[in-house]
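quick q for whoever's on today - can somebody do inverse folding on this one?? i tried earlier but teh output was garbage lol. tokens:
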């Protein structure tokens, strides 16, 4: 008897402590009963207290990893995380086109929870203009969404997300400007009730339907009193990609992923001396 599994590829950095990056992605995929594969874009020395070193992988070797996976086990979905520089971004963009990769979920990792910058500033314009448009969904948190909008050419002041209305405006702007669906994660919000964590999913009109409104969906959940949230962004985007691989539509894939991450946080795993990981 043969077993067939849906397949998901993560293209991201490695976390030596196992809480985020490739390691969190593969744990999440295993929990969702899909077959996880990986392309490592950078090695990091990190633990629950922060990142102490980053070693980018040469673009030629990132390309070889992608080729090895895609020419043998084509993925049903792709999660993209940490891309350390423009050269690696170019390799990933080329691979999406070459292998017709589908269900691409991009988590725009601009900095770590501890505040360490992960994607070099000069590469952000390429990320926005060449990779967002090749993705089905991008998943910035509120600080990342503010950064992405504040650094646009011609915008001379910081974009501030300080209300639900501003969050909706930000999602529409990102979706309209870069041609992708957008999930803005509300875990960093200071304008919600203390017990509420609300994410916003903005779905673009299909095709060239210019008269159709963006579909704006609020996904409310419980905010847990648990500081151990290392790797939540990686975990959520991998869960979404896993659900897409299994045939969920976008709204369902995101909704089910949010339920999953709430369980991971609520489990109350306590490891390390700093901001600890989730129980995947």
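ok took a stab at it. sequence:
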């Amino acid at each position: 008897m043969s077993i067939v599994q849906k397949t998901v590829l993560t293209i991201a950095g490695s976390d030596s402590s196992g809480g985020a990056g490739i390691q969190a992605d593969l744990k999440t995929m295993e929990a969702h009963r899909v077959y996880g594969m990986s392309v490592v874009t950078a090695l990091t020395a990190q633990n629950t207290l922060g990142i102490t070193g980053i070693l980018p992988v040469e673009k030629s070797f990132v390309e070889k990893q992608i080729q090895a996976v895609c020419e043998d086990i084509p993925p049903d979905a792709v999660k993209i995380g940490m891309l350390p520089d423009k050269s690696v971004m170019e390799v990933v963009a080329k691979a999406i086109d070459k292998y017709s990769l589908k269900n691409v979920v991009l988590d725009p990792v601009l900095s770590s929870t501890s505040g360490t910058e992960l994607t070099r500033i000069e590469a952000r314009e390429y990320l926005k203009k060449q990779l967002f448009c090749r993705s089905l969904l991008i998943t910035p948190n509120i600080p990342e969404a503010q950064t992405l909008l504040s650094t646009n050419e011609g915008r001379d002041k910081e974009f501030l997300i300080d209300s639900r209305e501003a969050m909706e405006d930000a999602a529409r702007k990102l979706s309209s400007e870069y041609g992708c669906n957008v999930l803005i994660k509300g875990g960093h919000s200071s304008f919600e009730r203390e017990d509420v964590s609300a994410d916003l999913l903005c779905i673009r009109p299909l095709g060239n339907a210019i008269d159709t409104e963006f579909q704006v969906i609020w996904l409310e959940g419980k905010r847990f009193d648990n500081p151990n949230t290392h790797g939540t962004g990686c975990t959520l985007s991998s869960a979404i990609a896993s659900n897409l691989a299994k045939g969920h539509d976008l709204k369902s894939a995101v909704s089910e992923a949010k339920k999953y991450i709430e369980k991971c946080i609520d489990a109350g795993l306590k490891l390390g001396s700093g901001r600890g990981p989730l129980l995947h």
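fwiw The mean pLDDT is 90. also The longest strand covers residues 35-47. so keep that in mind when u check it
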